[in-house]
């Protein structure tokens, strides 16, 4: 009898899980990784458009990774701390008591955001790090970033139980567009503007 009841509870819990509850941390993790991937790859492609030197490309990517991770962490810390303050004030108004376990952690959010950004940013850095020849390096970066973009799009869709093809395509085309615009405009300015 108990076994039948347990199976009913398991069935109910799997069918009624609210995937929108995952939205906040999922959004932060996937967007953080995607931001790191796209911004670092775009920066490296932009520098690569005017400077074929591997060292310049890697250094610009590394600087972009560090600056982006710091920026994401600080932004997330400030945002979550604001949410923390609002929730504390609300708890004090409602019950006069603050339930610490229900509050978000600004430091945890900042660390997670910086880590997610860095995970994405490391992909184009590793793709370019060991390739001396310029054209092969550009192809290696675009290929690695393409695979990662599709992967991040699929992961976000899978975790949120959303359509994977549409999500992956949206992430992929957005990333390609960012890299192409950055490469093209930097090449144009490098040829005619400087």
UniProtKB/TrEMBL annotation:
Signal peptide: none annotated. It catalyses: Fe(2+)(in) = Fe(2+)(out). Pfam families: VIT1. GO terms for cellular component: vacuolar membrane. The keyword Methyltransferase does not apply. The chain crosses the membrane at residues 54-74, 109-131, 138-159, 171-192. Keywords: Ion transport, Iron, Iron transport, Membrane, Transmembrane, Transmembrane helix, Transport, Vacuole. The keyword DNA-binding does not apply. GO terms for biological process: intracellular manganese ion homeostasis. Its main location: membrane. It is a multi-pass membrane protein. It is found in: Vacuole membrane. One of its GO terms (molecular function) is iron ion transmembrane transporter activity. Vacuolar Fe(2+) uptake transporter. PANTHER family: FE(2+)/MN(2+) TRANSPORTER PCL1 (PTHR31851). Belongs to the CCC1 family. This is Vacuolar iron transporter. It comes from Brassica napus (Rape).
